[in-house]
Backbone:
């Protein structure tokens, strides 16, 4: 048994997200008609209602928008405490992603984050399983 929960990477709704992650890129759906970015995946554009959405790479950095420290354990693979952060991406209005940081991490509105990628190895069908993860940005990157 793996010490990490692995996502299903071949689901049609999120496959593009994980394909970009396998290439070291962070992805969101982008409307081919109006260029509106959408995250989480949806069947229609939130801007114009169009159905022609494609995965596109976006900047892998952002700033804390909200956060909380979880003290009550709900799953054995997520020991407490841990910090959950809502990260608003740089250069992407209204695109936010969730980050998980082990422990009680000091975070405020000025805390900057960068994405990393964790390779969990291939799934049972041989698909690369790579998770975008977030860490606090430092002067060294």
Residues:
């Amino acid at each position: 048994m793996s010490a990490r929960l692995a996502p299903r990477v071949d689901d049609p709704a999120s496959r593009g997200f994980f394909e970009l992650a396998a290439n070291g890129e962070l992805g969101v759906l982008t409307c081919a008609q109006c260029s509106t970015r959408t995250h989480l995946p949806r069947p229609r554009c939130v801007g114009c209602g169009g159905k022609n959405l494609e995965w596109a790479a976006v900047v892998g950095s952002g700033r804390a928008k909200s956060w909380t420290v979880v003290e009550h354990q709900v799953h054995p693979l997520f020991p407490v405490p841990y910090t959950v952060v809502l990260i608003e991406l740089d250069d992407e209005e209204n695109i936010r992603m969730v980050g998980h940081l082990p422990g009680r991490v000091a975070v405020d509105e000025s805390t900057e984050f960068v994405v990393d990628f964790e390779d969990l190895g291939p799934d049972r069908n041989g698909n690369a399983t790579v998770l975008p993860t977030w860490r606090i940005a430092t002067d060294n990157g």
Summary: The mean pLDDT is 94. The longest strand covers residues 112-122. The radius of gyration is 16 Å. Helices lie at 15-22.
